[in-house]
Amino acid sequence: MDIQSLREQHPDHWKKACAIRALTLDAVAAANSGHSGMPMGMADVATVLYEKHMVFDARSPDWPNRDRFVLSAGHGSMLVYALLHLTGDPEFPIEQIRNFRQWGSKTAGHPENFLAKGIETTTGPLGQGLAMSVGLAMAEESLRARWGAKIIDHYTYCIAGDGCLMEGVSQEAIGLAGRHELSHLIVMWDNNGITIDGKVSLSDRTDQKARFAAAGWDVFECDGHDPADIDRALTAAKASKGPAFIACTTHIALGSSAQDTSKGHGALTDAKLIADTKAAYGWTSAAFEIPADVKKAWEAIGARGAEARKAWDERLAALSDGKRALFQQQFSCEPPKKLASAIRAVKKDAVEKMPKVATRRASEMVLEAVNPVMPETIGGSADLTGSNNTKTADLGVFDPINRKGRYVYYGIREHGMAAAMNGMALHGGLRPYGGTFMCFADYCRPAIRLSALMHMPVVYVFTHDSIGLGEDGPTHQPVEHLAMLRATPNMMVFRPADLVETAEAWEIALGAKATPSVLALSRQNLPAVRKNHTNKNLVAQGGYVLEEATGKRQVILIASGSEVEVALKAREALEADGIGTRVVSMPCMELFAQQDEAYRRKVLPAGAVRIAIEAGVRMGWDRWLLGERGREGKDGFVGMTGFGASAPAERLFQEFGITYEATVAKAKALLG
Amino acid sequence: MDIQSLREQHPDHWKKACAIRALTLDAVAAANSGHSGMPMGMADVATVLYEKHMVFDARSPDWPNRDRFVLSAGHGSMLVYALLHLTGDPEFPIEQIRNFRQWGSKTAGHPENFLAKGIETTTGPLGQGLAMSVGLAMAEESLRARWGAKIIDHYTYCIAGDGCLMEGVSQEAIGLAGRHELSHLIVMWDNNGITIDGKVSLSDRTDQKARFAAAGWDVFECDGHDPADIDRALTAAKASKGPAFIACTTHIALGSSAQDTSKGHGALTDAKLIADTKAAYGWTSAAFEIPADVKKAWEAIGARGAEARKAWDERLAALSDGKRALFQQQFSCEPPKKLASAIRAVKKDAVEKMPKVATRRASEMVLEAVNPVMPETIGGSADLTGSNNTKTADLGVFDPINRKGRYVYYGIREHGMAAAMNGMALHGGLRPYGGTFMCFADYCRPAIRLSALMHMPVVYVFTHDSIGLGEDGPTHQPVEHLAMLRATPNMMVFRPADLVETAEAWEIALGAKATPSVLALSRQNLPAVRKNHTNKNLVAQGGYVLEEATGKRQVILIASGSEVEVALKAREALEADGIGTRVVSMPCMELFAQQDEAYRRKVLPAGAVRIAIEAGVRMGWDRWLLGERGREGKDGFVGMTGFGASAPAERLFQEFGITYEATVAKAKALLG
């Protein structure tokens, strides 16, 4: 349908959609940067979605039972901001639109969930929004089963572009959605045939509809500019039995001279182009001005869900006090009161029995205590359940016939898993954790970064955390991964040494409200190193004195995880030779760095040789050691300098020199 | 077909296939670890492939025109080792099979390309082998067009498992292969319905045949145990016009009590199970023993391609001296002699004109000089061609109608691009480089790691390397990525400051034979910092004195890339205040670390305050600074401590305090 016919046949719709387009043109021009074409192309779909289908209340953007809207093609962020402004979200007055992409504004270049309640999620790295939408829809299914449809019953809508569909994570996501028959998930594909480099056909000739159908989706299509056709497709999609994919045929940068070209993807800032485009739209208002009747119509859309929201408030209020309190606790991401006592019980038991277990098994023991008292947890693994030790007996399996199940078989999809966990955490009401081998943190790295950036307290259970993995060899042995994870802002990387430290790490991870955690866990058995019970969570200090020197302190050994055992053995040998040696366990470098300087100095005082021991690369440890700069100093590192190898684990530790003997020799050499 | 029928109907085939199965059972039992089920399930397919189709010469495993065989399901490595041993590869006597997964053997837990010529590629991280196969097949198409079918004309065969197909990278790979109509690529899917967690249907219900067809593949299927049916499918696949996908219905751990179960995926080590299985096979030889007739039959297969190889040797010898020398130079990964002079010309021109350009543009200027004299380069970008500045005018576009084109539009597929580049580098004869935004190094991280592990000199062109990217905001601004990349063993991370340094970095990257390189390049314009021409490659030293202190040296500023400008301005201000200040440019920390201590001390002598400046996290810099350990010291860091934000770049540098003013203030504070 051409613009003229659209204007004539659907005049009210046209004005509303053009309000989105005009704000996009104005904001991008003011910022002199941004992406105009996507909001201009998808304005009709978004208008119909918001006017006819989305259940939301612009004045209560964080209402838990709202429909979710995810713009996976996050570069088209002006679509989100225009919708928030037009529908009357109080955080988005016109000044926010005027300050698009400026310091301190809520209208960042890509949507950022932490800047405003009305922004469901950060998007921009392509494919992530689609994959998080799958997590949102999984959360909705899970919570609907737990709380009943009176409390949770909504749709998740996602707009995805060609980029989202080309990124590999999309396949992991659509496979998960198909397998779990997520009928409340509706993905609208902005099928405009254009990428940055040119036509999509330059790089891709995939039949996307056939691809989604192959993954078990119900597939629809529509003219993405015809409001009646869009409405028909959305109505059909909502009634589908599986997840729904709507191929919306659109024109990027509709109505401009850049329409249907890759130029239209980016910032349209030319004054004449903008004027001509607005003229083609029949849009005569000044920049950043919306005609009163159009604004009023949009605000009515924003208020459309207010009654539904109030009715929901009443239904929530009608719950028993206990149930309501539980709902609020879980949605506010507060840990339950019983968590602390459950952890304490594990710790007490541990110092009594001193079990020699791998920390991945220790993690399972903690989960066996935690999962029963923390029903908001939802666990899973990327097809390594038995190795990651992530499934406890009480969880049940989440699938279409048991939506109450709390364990997800994610398949061999680390990236899809991590993104789904982000979606679940964004939804609220659930505490997702998921496992894989630590080396395959690589596969989910883009989603891990989003957990940190978005402040999502997702827990990553990364087992087989070093060459201790043994025979599988260097492709499966993390070496640089602790450094990579520690370098990421707003992450806590725990590498516990035994069951007690593992319990304490889980307690912190499950108490976090805005920070994701990594648990780096051993494949191999490790001795208990904490001999006395204390209610205090020592891991919360990041590093602490595990064993003190008996005589004059000449050496401090700092270690994490499986190498704490090495440090303790080295200490024994050094002490036997009359060399006073302190052992510092450092399960979380980030938390140690957050302690005050006095504490850090107490744990790591001057005047002794220091050696850090960790079966990974040195990077990250230099902060606590004398590096090149302190050449006069006496510090050392026992760890890896390159990739691992395939052999039994004990042999590898020997060959790579990560042993107590090597540590003792280094200490003596440094003491001179 | 049941085992009994197979034995009776195809007795010769059966014995050959069971030789693979028996060696697998024996090796896994001896190692007490490994994966038995996959080689047992795919032994029939592999036997038919090697006997009837693969063109190779076991005595000349690195013959450039051999068919390639990639085991994407790398955990089934015993399939590869059994084939190499049985066909008579001189590097794989039976001792190697006996030492499966042991220190120093070539038979690592997963195949490692650097351990033996006969191992085409490292695999194990699932999906990588499939995606590298696409690169191998692209290289074959490209080289066939360049050299003619008499010199390069072969197939790439790949065995992929369910895990490979669930990993997202598989979608990127099959999309690329479909678009490029790679008719010499044949993927055999080990369709056994089993993953580690149980049945595939627990986590996936994708119709894989429909999915591949949707991506433009020709789809076939066969009974993966019936040699006649396998042969029929392979014959048809070779004749296909597009890439071919053969769904091979198989039984994991065929013939054992673990058949068709997830138990069968792992190590079958129970003595009775092994004895019973061999009995079912009718296999009566002792462990690690192959009946002479069976070994002879396999060795005949190994010798089958010797004539073809000899004929090829003659065709190569018949080339003109110049052409043959060029072929050998390109396949040996030697840079052409003209590279050095091309780089020198760029450098000379640069110090004359002192252009103020972004280093991404500088990189393009270097490529404009390099690509014409280095026809083995093959460039590309993951849909950011204009931003990554990776396409020079002379390249032409690689696609089905122009196989000689040297530029690949990879689409929005960073992971698929990186894996394809690994495949091209593995093939030999090409020098792949490819671009994306540096932040999206995350998306290709598993393949980057493989470049390093496999010793592949792939060049990653990562532009927009800091908050200097500006308005797109924190999802697009790398912060921890330099640390992540530097932490990876066997990588060179270059962050050049201007055109001269960019040219020198490219020279090193293109001269490398066994190390991948990252070029971290700015979006924003940067002033020229190298004022005098020298033929010497200063970047090769990693770090060097760019500007010396005029008076007494009180401060040393160390910076990389865009922050060298900040350091130079800060030096000017400090010198104006009488504070002697040296500026060290540190474009490659790895190369600096490789210099001898005397040089490092010369560049970074004691006795002055040091400040490192880089718009990323501090991790990695501590080695050259006094960290916590040197509390008495006086060193500082000017950089990022968290994620970035959306705003114009200049504002971001101001807000995050990465300025010359902040540097000057820090220096003065540290001087006290």
UniProtKB/TrEMBL annotation, chains A, B:
EC supergroup of this enzyme: transferase
Assembly: Homodimer.
Swiss-Prot/TrEMBL site (Important for catalytic activity) positions: H35, H265
Name of the molecule in the record: Transketolase
Residues annotated as transmembrane: none
Listed GO CC annotations: cytosol
Reactions mediated catalytically: D-sedoheptulose 7-phosphate + D-glyceraldehyde 3-phosphate = aldehydo-D-ribose 5-phosphate + D-xylulose 5-phosphate
Keywords, comma-separated and alphabetical: Calcium, Magnesium, Metal-binding, Thiamine pyrophosphate, Transferase
Entry annotation: catalytic residues: E414
This protein's pathway: Carbohydrate degradation; pentose phosphate pathway; Carbohydrate biosynthesis; Calvin cycle
Keyword Transferase in record: yes
Stored SUPFAM superfamilies: Thiamin diphosphate-binding fold (THDP-binding), TK C-terminal domain-like
BP terms from Gene Ontology: pentose-phosphate shunt, non-oxidative branch
Residues in Transketolase-like pyrimidine-binding domain copies: 357-529
The encoding gene: tktA
UniProt entry tagged with the keyword Transferase: yes
Molecular functions (GO terms): metal ion binding; transketolase activity
Cofactor field: Co(2+); Ca(2+); thiamine diphosphate; Mg(2+)
Family named by the database record: Belongs to the transketolase family.
E.C. designation(s): 2.2.1.1
Entries under InterPro entries matching the protein: THDP-binding, Transketo_C/PFOR_II, Transketolase-like_C_2, Transketolase-like_Pyr-bd, Transketolase_bac-like, Transketolase_BS, Transketolase_fam, Transketolase_N
Cofactor: record remark: Binds 1 thiamine pyrophosphate per subunit. During the reaction, the substrate forms a covalent intermediate with the cofactor.
Positions contributing to Mg(2+) binding: D162, N192, I194
Residues the entry annotates as binding substrate: H35, H265, R360, S387, H464, D472, H476, R523
Positions with a binding annotation for thiamine diphosphate: H75, G124, P125, L126, G163, N192, H265, F440
